[in-house]
Design a protein that fits this description.
Elements: H1 4-18, E1 22-26, H2 37-40, E2 43-50, E3 53-60, H3 68-82, E4 86-89, H4 95-103, E5 108-110, E6 114-117, E7 122-125, H5 140-151, H6 160-167, H7 171-183, E8 188-190, E9 196-198, H8 203-210, E10 218-224, E11 233-234, H9 236-243, E12 253-257, H10 258-266, E13 273-274, E14 280-285, H11 300-307, H12 313-325
Parallel strand pairs: 3-4, 4-5, 12-14
Antiparallel strand pairs: 1-2, 2-3, 5-6, 6-7, 8-9, 10-13, 10-14, 11-12
Helix pairs in contact: 3-4, 6-7, 11-12
């Protein structure tokens, strides 16, 4: 059985590093039943859904490591039988193996270390020996850090380790965020052993620089049967009427961090969950809305990002007015 810890590590790594929304689940039996017996037992297989693309995630089921040549042949065979691209989940591969897999254009992921997905033109390595590329939009983890600095408390006085504890990330993730924000000219880094962020502009100007590069926090929306759950942050029209002069539409909406949503979903927290209709709307967020809220509602800046460019001219005007009048 594919260890839950590996699944969580892969999801967290891709989310925090390149802002990709990932879903890993059991693969339907019909996908594998046509493949030869040797191939079925060579790996543990899972359906790997990544930004609208479905792939086969294959984890080595043997104690003996495979060579790049073997995996090349097997990836071609798996793709032929399953009619989907293949990505290998690796735990502690050698540098030589990874180098050969890249030469052969074999997709793989090593959680917290490296991702190579030529199907998506993604190649990131955490060794500092080559220039690191970043997506055009600010990644969700970096966006959370910026919004925390802009609304909750100034982060310049804290070390990377302190900030990691505040945001629930690892120090390594904070280091990656710093590299990203520095590359986007949104901050500088000071210190050697104990590093700190240095934002050279005041917060309103920082928001103006960062906002065009920010993304909506909502990964996906569902509808459920449960209401009045105070553990979630109120979102959607509820938050809109709270922060602006718009009337409450009566639509109940909550913001739930993706990791928490998946955990509750697996436990059967919602008896009913649908993508089109239901009593209450559940917005699944790319970062934790609770870290930015102190009044039971999602934070104003994330609210703005949720409704930015709304077709309703009054809504668009109200959220812009909210930002203009915000006390920085």
């Amino acid at each position: 059985m594919f260890k839950v810890i590996m699944k969580n590590r892969i999801q967290k790594y891709l989310q925090e590093t390149v802002g990709l929304s990932v879903n890993i689940k059991n693969i339907p039996n019909e996908r594998l039943k046509k493949s030869p017996l040797y191939l079925r037992h060579a790996y543990r297989y899972f359906l790997f859904e990544l930004e609208g693309l479905s792939l086969i995630l294959a984890e080595n089921g043997d104690t003996v490591s495979k060579t790049a040549g073997q995996m090349k042949k097997q990836s071609i065979a798996i793709r032929q039988y399953c009619e989907m691209p293949v990505v290998f989940a690796l735990n502690n591969p050698s540098s030589q193996l990874k180098r050969k897999m890249i030469q052969e254009k074999i997709s793989f992921i090593v959680p917290e270390s490296q991702v190579y997905l030529p199907e998506l033109l993604i190649s990131l390595k955490e060794n500092g020996r080559q220039p690191q590329s970043f997506p055009e939009l600010i990644t969700p983890s970096a966006q959370l850090l910026l919004l925390y600095h802009l609304q909750v408390e100034h982060l310049e006085k804290f070390t990377f380790k302190d900030i990691a504890e505040k945001l629930g990330y690892t120090p390594k993730t904070i280091t990656k965020i710093a590299a990203e924000l520095k590359a986007k000219n949104l901050c500088k880094v000071e210190g050697t052993k104990e590093k700190r962020f240095k934002f050279e502009v005041e917060r309103k100007h920082l928001w103006q620089l960062a906002e065009p590069q920010m993304q909506s926090p909502i990964a996906k929306s569902y509808y459920a049967d449960k209401k009045g759950d105070s553990v979630f942050c109120q979102s959607g029209d509820l938050a809109l009427s709270h922060y602006t002069f718009l009337s409450d539409t009566g639509k109940v909406c909550y913001a739930v961090y993706k990791a928490e949503f998946e955990a509750l979903k697996e436990k059967g927290y919602w008896a009913y969950l649908d993508e089109t209709e239901g009593d209450v709307q559940i917005d699944v967020w790319k970062y934790n809305p609770r870290l930015l809220s102190n009044n039971g509602y999602i934070d104003p800046l994330s609210l703005y990002l949720c409704y930015r460019g709304d077709d309703n001219e009054r809504v668009d005007a109200e959220i812009k007015d909210l930002i203009d009048k915000k006390i920085w």
